[in-house]
Amino acid sequence: MKRKIKKWTFRLAVTGLFIAGLLLVIILNPVLTYANKTEHNNHTLFHNKPLDPAVLTTLDQAAELLKASEFYNPKLRLDICLNDGSKYPELIKALRGQAFAWGFYNKVIMQGNADFKKGYVKLNGYKWNLTQLLAHEMTHCLQFDELGFWKSKPIANIPNWKWEGYAEYVSRQNDDQKNLFKNITRLIGANKNSWEIIFADNTIAPRAYYEYWILVQYCMDIKKMTYKQMLADTKGEQAVKEEMMRWFYTQR
Q1: pTM of the model
Q2: Would 69 be classed as within a structural domain?
Q3: What ranges make up the beta strands (E) of the chain?
């Protein structure tokens, strides 16, 4: 009996390892699940349907936003996986959950419904600015490229406000988003029961991400910290928020 248990345990372990290995191969090689790929500058786009030229324009705009990051690497090559019929986005959704998009390693995977001509991604009735969403997820790839696997989330214990807030900070560069005082004022005036904060173009940021973003903006624009200094700083989220609000009320 014990031999049978060991035998079946071994078989299950081998099967589990095989499945995990197969999933890893597919995740690292999206070309296996897409009909087409297109090379554009430092990006490889994976798509099933013919590529809309607006996709490349949007991608260039997002790549330009990345230059604001201290981790910017002009040689970094990224895979951009569109949500246009491939099973790949569904696989990532099954593994990581539903999102407008995911960015990890050197990959950006779109999950919402993108309208490249109108410039937004729609999910559950909400719209996220497409250029900024791409830049947000691409920033996560920059973080991984600079910090490495062991010092990046989810392996490293980096607070969400520092990890997601920095991606928002790099991507949110519209004229109505650059002034911290106005950003805090927008947050204070928003419905406290709403999941989202709405911008002038009727796109949104999740409230949590918005709050993370303005904390990073305070640290970087007002305190003149680098992102690496922020990562090393031991001050907690609540303490930074209280400090930021003290600054805010002195500006009124």
Answers
A1: 0.92
A2: yes
A3: 36-40, 43-47, 78-81, 101-104, 107-110, 113-115, 120-123, 126-129, 196-198, 204-206
Among 214, 238, 215, 79, smallest CA distance to 144 is for: 79
The sign of the torsion formed by the CA atoms of 227, 233, 236, 241 equals: negative
Is-contact 206 195, C-beta < 8 A? yes
| Mean pLDDT, rounded, for 5-9 | 59
Query: 127 and 193 in one domain?
Result: no
**Two structure tokens written together for 156:** 């490293």
What's the domain range around 37? 28-147
Residue 215 has pLDDT above 80, yes or no: yes
15: in domain: no
Joined together, the tokens standing for residue 233 give: 């700083």
Domain co-membership, 55 together with 128: yes
**Cα–Cα nearest to 56, from 31, 79, 76, 39:** 39
Q: Is the pLDDT of residue 8 over 70?
A: no
Q: Summarize pLDDT for 72-111 with one digit per residue, the tens.
A: 999 999 999 999 999 999 999 998 899 999 999 999 999 9
